[in-house]
Amino acid sequence: MSSEGSISTEVRGNVFLIGLNRPEKYNGYTPTMAKQLVEAFTRLDEDDSLWVGLIHAHGDHFTAGLDLPKWTNAMEDSTGVSRPREGCDPVALGRACKKPVITAVKGITYTFGIELALAGDIVIAADNARFSQLEPARGIHATGGATFRFVERAGWGNAMYHLLTSDVFDAAEALRIGLVQEVVPFGQEFERALELAQHIATTQAPLAVQATKASARRFLNEGVQACIDALDPVQAKLMQSQDSIEGVQSFIERRQAKFQGK
């Protein structure tokens, strides 16, 4: 394996697995990994056969965050860390992925690891996970979305408590403040995340799932009225889909719907 690490990918049915793969360095995030992660997210976003993404990590830890010495130049000249000029942005500061993303975290989950998880939709944490948004202790501030997504998920006081102190907190605290949605025993986080991903991929209509995520993001990005204004037009479009017809028919016939994402 390259000392720069890599991003693994695997397709399981309609679920796309994306793995941080530099375990010998606690999955410290490098520019090489960043390029490959953008490519993986772009594939997830654009491939109509991929309905749910699952982000995980190889080894015992999710990620120690950025391998800072490898990012110094990018930070100094304001080109940033995770703002791809083309493709889908893993931390959704640029083009966001329209598909649902579930993240399984474990062990060390620092800085960029938190931001990657917060940019997704559902987070499953191992009970040994420990978190820290420690940029201020290094003389910088978080630039991958934590400064506002932490507030969205946890509220102002909880966000400031952890962002301004650079403390290390555990999975129970992450669950309490809403950064993660479930805590499971270490070693079960991937399977639980996969179970959820497969549930969404096999029981929910893909276009409806994407529209639901888009509506929620529209509220966060544009406000209540923009969200309200889009509800009926989007619903009318969904009603014209084959999946909508199948959803009604499966209800009438009292059977599991077989959606195609069309």
UniProtKB/TrEMBL annotation:
Keyword hit for GTP-binding = no
Superkingdom is Bacteria
Q: Which UniProt keywords apply?
A: Isomerase
Segments spanning the bilayer are: none
**One family name in Pfam for this protein:** ECH_1
SUPFAM superfamilies on file = ClpP/crotonase
Under Gene3D superfamilies, the record lists: 2-enoyl-CoA Hydratase, Chain A, domain 1, Lyase 2-enoyl-coa Hydratase, Chain A, domain 2
Which GO molecular function annotation, any one, does this entry have? Answer: isomerase activity
PANTHER family given for it? ENOYL-COA HYDRATASE, IP11341P-RELATED
Name listed for the protein in its UniProt record: Enoyl-CoA hydratase/isomerase
Organism for this UniProt entry: Aequoribacter fuscus
